């Protein structure tokens, strides 16, 4: 699957670079941003993790008018909500902490401009795929670690897709700000992990 993904990225970049020669505007953009990530599903993920933060960076290449391909990397720090967990499981000690999920995501988005030239606020849509590398920090507790077997986690790399949209507007001659929301679905052996990141960022 990884070989297929790398092949897709290579083809997308070649396609973007050849297409950008036909587009009179700047052929590429740099993206950077961050914001809030809300756990959405399944219930075990949603109920045991807080709304957390993320950061993202990407490089976008114009392919055709109103279409840009963006290669990106992003990081999500999903914090465990131990106060909520203790209401679900009375065995969890008040001193228990840790267990933060670290999610690194590497992918490509197709970004579609939905506005006409000259509009001050420009809506856009996006869709993309990639791989998510998920690890979890150690859980510290005064209890026997065996009591926390339900919260054990093995590092994994899984396929994901995302869909979303937002708006962007010119803040300076060479600087554009954007606000976007996404639905992110990370493949799992059981129920998939679903997150809703809201990102405020800059496009250069």
Outline the structure in words:
The chain is α+β, with helices and mostly antiparallel strands and 204 residues long. The protein is 16% helix and 55% strand. The protein is built from three helices and ten strands, in the order H-E-H-E-E-H-E-E-E-E-E-E-E. Strand 5 and strand 6 form a beta hairpin. About 10% of the residues have low confidence.
Low-confidence stretches: 4-9, 11-24
Structural class determined from secondary elements: alpha+beta
Total DSSP helices: 3
The percent of residues in helical segments reads: 10-25%
- The neighbouring-strand order within the major sheet is 1-2-3-5-6-8-9-10
Q: What is the C-alpha radius of gyration, as a whole number of Å?
A: 20 Å
Average pLDDT, rounded to a whole number, is: 84
| Overall strand count | 10
**Strand percentage:** over 45%
> In this structure, how is the largest beta sheet organized?
8 strands, antiparallel, barrel
SSE sequence, one letter per element = HEHEEHEEEEEEE
Gap from first CA to last CA: 33 Å
Write down the overall geometry: elongated
Quaternary state reads: single chain
């Amino acid at each position: 699957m990884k070989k297929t993904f790398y092949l897709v990225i290579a083809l997308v970049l070649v396609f973007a670079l050849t297409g950008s020669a036909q587009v009179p505007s700047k052929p590429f953009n740099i993206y950077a941003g961050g914001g809030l990530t809300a756990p959405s599903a399944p219930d075990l993920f949603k109920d045991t993790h807080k709304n957390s933060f993320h950061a993202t960076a990407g490089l976008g290449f114009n392919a055709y008018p109103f279409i840009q391909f963006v290669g990106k990397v992003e990081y999500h720090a999903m914090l465990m909500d131990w106060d909520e967990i203790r209401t679900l499981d009375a065995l969890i000690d008040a001193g228990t902490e840790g267990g933060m999920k670290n999610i690194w995501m590497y992918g490509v988005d197709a970004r579609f401009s939905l506005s006409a030239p000259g509009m001050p606020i420009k809506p856009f849509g996006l869709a993309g795929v990639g791989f998510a590398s998920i690890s979890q920090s150690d859980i510290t507790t005064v209890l026997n670690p065996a009591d926390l077997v339900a919260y054990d986690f093995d590092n994994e790399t899984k396929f994901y897709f995302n869909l979303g949209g937002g708006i962007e507007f010119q803040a300076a001659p060479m600087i554009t700000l954007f606000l976007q929301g996404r639905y992110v679905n990370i493949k799992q052996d059981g129920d998939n992990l679903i997150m809703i990141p809201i990102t405020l960022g800059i496009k250069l």
